[in-house]
């Protein structure tokens, strides 16, 4: 049985277009939807770490776009949220008055981060290529190539789309006299954040090949004879007051710069930026289906963050305003470890975000009567708690402060960056540890526990002695003491005291950890106790790991549970050499969540909200920390890490 057939059930693989032949190298990075596959369209995503694009099936525009810096602050009854921004390049095509489109194919070319759509209108064949420009994070581009099967006049029009989330909207043509005949731009403006923020976008269309006529700032026209080809392209820059004091003129400048650079230069630099990212990657060998799936996960994570941005990754990245674009433990526990192995500079940006939020976390700890820093369960663009008030996770899911601290230590262990640990990392770890010393309660005989929390299993609310919370706190208390010793600083003695005395309630058999003091076998939302093995490594005995995973894995909600739980469990079985069980768990982590030809991963089996970056992180952790770190000829998956084009 091949690894492909074993890893993914035949029905799911076939539905996703994955079954069959060995693929050429480019095919491992290209996902294709043909005309017959358009039912239940699940759009591909494009991202450059600042601008996120969810494509439309037509290929000429986005369904929606987001920028990492554009948010509304909270108001009574509504929390702060990321908001959709303008779609400044939204083209339409007219061929001698005919606008009826015959869709042929759409591809997501992940290596180049481009969506390529083939269609026909009125006897002219078109290929549209859309991208979020990697080297210019505020820009998007589209190119339109065409071949006429008859004499035809083609008119291309740009009609920017402005979502209802924005106000004070305007679209107007302007001429910038930066050259003799002037440069025609289409300028769009709007406000957000209750009128306190401004967005400005400038779009420019120009012909590249063919005798194009510029009708206006938003319209180009070309006359083609049968057999002739032509190509035009457009670029748009969108800037906000979150990033620039003067977004109006900056948007113009970037659009002018791009247009004067030219299509070939812009395309070349965009592709080179993605080649640089992919110099560090995961290669799955001998299983084209799993290789595509892993490539898709990596592509979506890389499109969600930029080095030096001091921003982190929301569960849906830059593809959706679900969860309001807030940052959860998903970033620190499920995504950061993957990026640490491949691109530490991307992980560093996520930690920079936490460091910048440290003052807010200190204020929050003080407000709740604790010391140190108390990080928000849902952290917004200001680093403030932004969980909707109807959700008890906001006031009670405290393990996030341990998740943040653990990320700090993982970064230091991966990079050995003692200077960073001294300047920023230790401060984060110290304040996380101080919180847990003040949050833990003494029981008896020098023991400690944490009461009244929501654990990783969010179905258990207001419980005492949650296994994951206690274990994560124990780890961070020890890490803080370790970091102090690395720096030659005297650690607080209470850190080791509380860590060594942390309680873990057990089932009557003395082998299985009780999820919390009152747990009685109920359904769980996701892995909790299971995480005490990997990634926390509180459990290390293989028999105990098996007993705990066997007990809890079948209790995870099969309808409402998120995707990453089973991927984490699989790491344990790979380490123990049980590849059959590991493969079954990875299948369970993927199969119910896989959507459409573009291999989107939904959050739960019962919804189609994509792309769930946390699922990508879970899958990649299973591949990297499981198969790559524990190679064996007995494994049905063979893979390797590539860093800087070196294995």
Write a short abstract of this structure.
The protein has 647 residues and is an alpha+beta fold.
Beginning-to-end CA distance, first to last residue: 27 Å
Roughly what percent helix?
Answer: 25-40%
Strand proportion: 15-25%
Largest sheet: 9 strands, antiparallel
Indicate the radius of gyration in whole angstroms. 26 Å
How many extended strands?
24
Number of alpha- plus pi-helical segments: 17
Poorly predicted parts: 1-23
Indicate the overall shape: globular
| Mean pLDDT across residues | 94
Strands side by side in the biggest sheet: 1-8-9-10-11-18-15-14-13
- Judged by helices, strands and strand pairing, the structural class is alpha+beta
Task: Provide key terms for this protein.
alpha+beta, nine-stranded antiparallel sheet, four-stranded antiparallel sheet, 17 helices
Describe the structure.
It is a single chain. With 647 residues, the chain is of the alpha+beta class. 33% of the residues lie in helices and 22% in strands. The chain has 17 helices and 24 strands. The strands form seven sheets. Strands 1-8-9-10-11-18-15-14-13 form a nine-stranded antiparallel sheet. Helix 6 runs antiparallel to helix 7 (344-356). The longest helix is centred in the middle third of the chain and has 22 residues, at 418-439. Residues 1-23 have low confidence and may be disordered.
